[in-house]
Amino acid sequence: MELYRCDLVLHDYLFFATTERGKVAETGPFIHNYALTYALGWATSPWRNEEQLPHYNEELSQVGQRYATPARLVGGSYLVSQYNTMSESYSLSKGRSIGYPDWGFIKGFRPGSIFRFYVISSQPVEFPLFIRLGKFMAKTRIIVTRANQVQRSTALNSEAKREGSPVLLNWTDLAPAGRPLVYDIVASALPTRLVDNPVFQGVIGPYLSATFTRGEQDKITIDLPLQMGYLGANLCLSW
Q1: What is the pLDDT of residues 88-102, one digit of tens each?
Q2: Full DSSP string of 195-230
Q3: I want to staple 4 with a disulfide (CB 3.0 to 4.6 A). Which of 119, 139, 215, 226 is the partner?
Q4: Are 68 and 36 spatial neighbours (Cβ–Cβ below 8 Å)?
């Protein structure tokens, strides 16, 4: 089984409306794993929809034996921009309102900001060099690091596992028996709830333990539960 650490480096401004407060639309410090799956080209949706309803069950079943976690912000900064689409022409009568905002502010991430997510796969994966993200299709570089050592483990009861793991997970994708006991809820995460800093002490597992190294001093070990899959189906454990 393969495990990859993927860093997303923005080459453009990233914006998507996570929360809307009055005239301000803000981008959250995360990228949902369903959005990442579509951006990577693992799942596809039709160009024309007769109804505005998602079809995650059908489209995410195309992914096969691989899974991407949500991406959390590693480093970066915001930029607040103002837009104004109000017409300056004279009108004798009020036109029809279509429900779009005429002016407001958008809060997005600057180029150079970095997001990180992980990919579990039964076979080696070829990643694209760039993908497009967000409302304005921001060009984003993918830097992939393959885990040097990957092994399966069971219960994580060590002293170190009492602290939260630096990974973002999708609560709906986790099987009930593999869900953490302690975690931080990410507010305004749609279409499903995301949890941050999960603590798996006391949860039997199994887990995929991997070590990433960049030189002799930079060594990071991470543990990901194998009882997860898109919408709770096709769990990584069954591969």
Answers
A1: 666 555 666 666 677
A2: EEEEE-TT----EEEEEEEETTTEEEEEEEESSB-G
A3: 119
A4: yes
